[in-house]
Amino acid sequence: MAEDQFKRKLTAILSADVVGYSRLMGEDEMATVSTMKSHRNLVAEKILTFKGRVIDSPGDNILAEFGSIVDAVTCAVEIQNALKEKNKDLPEKRKMAFRIGVNLGDVIEDEDRIYGDGVNIAARIESMADPGGVSISGTAFDSVRNKLKFGFEFLGEHQVKNIAHAVRVYRVLTDPADSGKLSGEAGAHRSKMPKAMVAVAVVIFLFGATYFYLAHTPSKESATIKQTAPQETSKPSIAVLPFTNMSDDPQQEYFSDGMTDDLITDLSKVSGLMVISRNSTFTYRGKAVQIKNVAQELGVKYVLEGSVRKVGDQIRINAQLIDAEKDHHVWAERYDGQLADVFKLQDQITQKIVSALSVNLSAQEKGDRKEYETKNIQAYDAFLKGWNYFLRQTPEDVAKAVTHLKQAIELDPEYSRAYAALALVYWKATDAGWREQLKVSPVAARLLATNYLEKAMKHPNSTAYIIAAEVSHRIFLFEEALSYAQKAVALAPNDHWGLYELGLMLIWNGKPQEGLVYLRKALELDPHNPGRVWQTMTIAEFCLGNYEKAVALGERAREFNPTTTSIGGVLSLPYAKLGQLQKAQEAFALYKKGWLSDIPPTIPLVMMFYNFSDPKMSEAVVDSMVKAGLPPTPSDYYQIQMLERLSEDEIKKLLLDSTISGIGLYSGQQWWWEIDTNGGFKTKGGGFGNNEGSLWIEDGLLCSNIPQMTKGLKFKGAVFKNKQGLKEKHNEYLWTSTLLLMPFSVEMRTSQDSN
After folding, report:
1. Phi and psi dihedrals of 153, rounded to 5?
2. Distance, C-alpha 662 to centroid of its chain
3. The pTM is what?
4. Would you state the pLDDT for residue 229?
5. For an engineered disulfide with 274, which of 237, 377, 468, 576 has Cβ 3.0 to 4.6 Å away?
């Protein structure tokens, strides 16, 4: 009967909606409705021009279909061009941008309506488009790539909610200079890096894609977590809502956002408070909210709100602290001053809050919070602009962020906070898809990150300590990684990222029960972004043998962020232990999608991401993943307990005036380094080719620079004796540099004195 009632057909679907519609309505309903009506009429006219028809237009959304996919994509671009022109006549705050997604797919037709996966995919792809941009599905791309004079950027395969298979997504590039260009796809770019560096790039990508999701990535969705009462804690709990920009210039919004960020950061350093993270409070930005509802959703008693007005070098800050339970103002004050006084004004607000809530400060907390902040107000202003762009998390905005952050360190070469921000940008660049806009390779991104981090560590903030923890973990220095994470939390007890990092490092160090304590604290402070915490808690519960709890947490994480492939690897572990092998294999298949097709997961590669200081935990991971579908051979991996770190003197004695050789983990080719008595060396064979470089030691770490490959930037790491190593396998020693793992053996001594 269904066959008779409904008709199936292949059609081109266009889905569009307004960016920031709720904010616009909250600010001015009448103006928004008027603009929406005008824009919608324009869109409808364009759709008719290209022989399409509007199916539905509820709220701020428009759904249309076309008989031709070429017409649909061309129409989408024409719509955006026309809207761009129309927005030029509107005030900055009233501009109305659309996202558009286009798909070619099968639908069910019921009278004048269409339904099915084809429509769902178009809607999901639309949500991935840039404001003012157009994204299309793989099926649409395959049909139009040689028929339209646009360029295209491959955005990867995405697991779309309620769609069984991954969907290819492309960004349409409309600049005439991009005509015919295809970027992002395998084969679109030919690497000019040496083979060894290509292999390094691959493993950096894989490591980043798995590890950095665990450590950083909030979901693109925000969870709505309703609380009926504040979190059960003896500490006063507070949320700082985004301060309103009251300046005449809407471009000054970066400054009001920066003020809010700094107040959250300052309050987070007070151990006697519980402070909700920026990630969660900024979900209310631009919305008309009821303070009591916000407090209930975030689980706090107090809410701070305010505004900032910046005119020239004069600033005015209005702030009010509200007791949400009693629905009354604890205090409200106005602070006036010059831009140069901004740090003092922030301190006054922080101190007023601490005093009003009767919080006792430690001796360290009573100190000057700006001890390592810049005294150059122009550098601070440049930093705020850069940080504001970074937090938008789009490739184009992150590129702008780098420009401003570099300006900040040019204005103040000792500005540690700016160095830490640059380190974070480049550390995250590969897995976040920012490399093309930043014009860096995976190798260069990693080198720049660690070099900026070194400068940030002269006067580290919590961000610097967190990245230092990740770098140390990457080079198998688990105890140092844990120490850095502890320092991050000591410096900022309410920083959800620091708490999360400490929980993660405790798990890798074989202390999952302790790790869970800090993960739960992180979840309290960032309740709107629980996905990454649930995923990491899944690992902790697995290590504790609580497999059913692990499955429940993992499934919640997958439901919250279904596009993340790394959750598949995590979920496969407890499912395998519970004997639910079909579900374990399905989860592993999802995990495998996150790997490059020519570098499939193997035990040695997987255990770079799932290595624990406790060998039993590592063995449990290997056993479970093999049951889930990981090939059982090769079975060798570097077990932390079998690595004995060498001292500075031992490294010198081992390497200077010698020839070392190894087998590339990814290329499988043998290489040789001939090292002289001063640390200079020549490379031969393998992926290194014939190059020259130098070695030296800093703080117990072996450093190297190969100018032709690393462009003058150094990379460094620890050197270990591998107790399981064999000379014939060229793996008696292991150098765990920030770029790659280099197993090697000493082939010969150059001078007789060394024998």
Report:
1. -120, 120
2. 34
3. 0.66
4. 40
5. 237
